[in-house]
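User: Working on a comparison across species. This one is NTF2 domain-containing protein from Allomyces macrogynus. Can you predict its structure so I can line it up against the others?
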Amino acid sequence: MIHTHARYTTHASRTTSLNNPRILFTHQPKETIRTVIDLAAGAADSFVASYYKFMDEQRASLRSLYKDTSNISWNGTAYAGPAYREFYLSLPATKHVIDAYDAHPVLASATPDGNCCFQIIVHGTVKFANEKHARRFTSTFLLAPTPEQANLHYIANECLRFV
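Assistant: Here's the predicted structure for NTF2 domain-containing protein from Allomyces macrogynus:
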């Protein structure tokens, strides 16, 4: 799971913290919206570093980032949580190079359960051990709060495409 309440320094060199990411943006002050955007950026930093380290070096650890209800589309093939675990464990060794990533909060008013989520888009290359050349990819992740703890997020939806 990804922790989203930890303190971190933003580009403005100030420390921010958000104890409850379940914010409706209707009539929220700009400072609150900015805080949630900063929180999304911090979550993306943590998530991207953890996810691709796990994928390349500790693949079995990825299990903690998904739930059985997670939906995944991997280059056009759909998987649900447990089936995806079997799939990614069967992949050959990988080495990812991340070129860029971006994150945005998904407004609580736009989600069925009323929780603030984060969308993270990642661009990069992946080299599979059994292939000669690296492939370019784009992945989109939707991180949702766990029902047990609002400051922990899991991968609710993932879509990877080779480009």
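For your comparison, note: Residues 3-27 have pLDDT under 50 and may be disordered.

User: Helpful, thanks.
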